[in-house]
Prior knowledge:
Order of helices and strands: EHEHEHEHEHEHEHHH
Bound molecules: uridine-5'-diphosphate, magnesium ion
Helix content: 40-55%
Structural class: alpha/beta
Radius of gyration: 25 Å
CATH architecture of the largest domain: Alpha-Beta Complex
CATH class of the largest domain: Alpha Beta
CATH superfamily of the largest domain: Spore Coat Polysaccharide Biosynthesis Protein SpsA, Chain A
Number of domains: 2
Number of helices: 9
Amino acid sequence: MDLSLIIPVYNEQDNLPLLFEAVYKTMNSLPQSWEAILVDDGSRDNSLSLLREYAQKDPGRVRVISFRRNFGQTAAIAAGLDYALGGTIILLDADLQNDPADIPMLLDKLNEGYDLVSGWRKSRKDNVLTRNFPSMVANWLISRVTGVHLHDYGCTLKAYRRDVLEGFRLYGEMHRFIPVYASSVGAKITEMPVNHHPRRFGKAKYGLERTAKVVLDLFTVKFLVSYSSKPIYLFGGAGGMLMIISTIMMIYLFVRRFVSLIGVTGSPLFQVSVMLFILGFQSMLMGLIAELLVRTYHESQRKPTYTVRTMINLEQDPRD
Ligand code: UDP
Ligand code: MG
């Protein structure tokens, strides 16, 4: 299998016929073999029975996973990834806001030697106030914090080489952070403007609250990517800083005691200093606990602390 399309579906009954038409039109023009994995995320409309029909008509290519209830787009994508057989993975929305006709272009780009090609909705057709503007801010923030420079993390339409996704688990709203993770394991990433259409049928499932979740997820991702194998650097660093600040305050208080005979313990600075010292010490200890957790994490799952691109004259996995 060459290509796997993964398409999350939540109450999209009116979009599905057009989606299949567009997907077939594009995919049949490509030489590669392909499959489409549609993940029904607990739809309450007719989506599942439509998907059943399409799967029956084309059992070799149309595969369907149906959730018991709505678990969210990220979970739907995660399920699709678990079952995808293709060496190249393409994520796509079911509502036709993404254009399947862009897929060949993304694949060509991938073949130029990239591991991930991200779609960029350069002229986005969503609500400006609740979606476009917040997402602009979020994209800017993600770029700054993670150092992975893309314009549009939220665009679902992206093409991935399968091996850069290996071992990455998706939680919360995290599918948009796949590029960040991929970059942390050394993937070559680029982006391309893609078409974007207004939603014709059904309702958008998200509003402003999503941006808040994305920002919280950003903390997690940044922490996992930068410190997950050495948490003591973060906790210990912060703790050490606090302890240094506290010590400077203390020295100041004692010096002042001898110069102007103002008591040390009477000043609020004294209390602040003691508090900072305790906080700093606690933070260091927390770092040590985190170090223990990291060891458990890597060793219980036999996860290496590195990623390999190729090996020459070596077995693939030394532990098997
Ligand atoms: N979706 C999903 N589960 C959800 C919400 C959305 O599977 O809980 C799917 C939805 O059917 C669509 C895609 O995720 O295919 C993107 O959703 P939507 O169009 O509402 O998001 P937007 O394009 O506004 O970001
Ligand atoms: Mg949409």
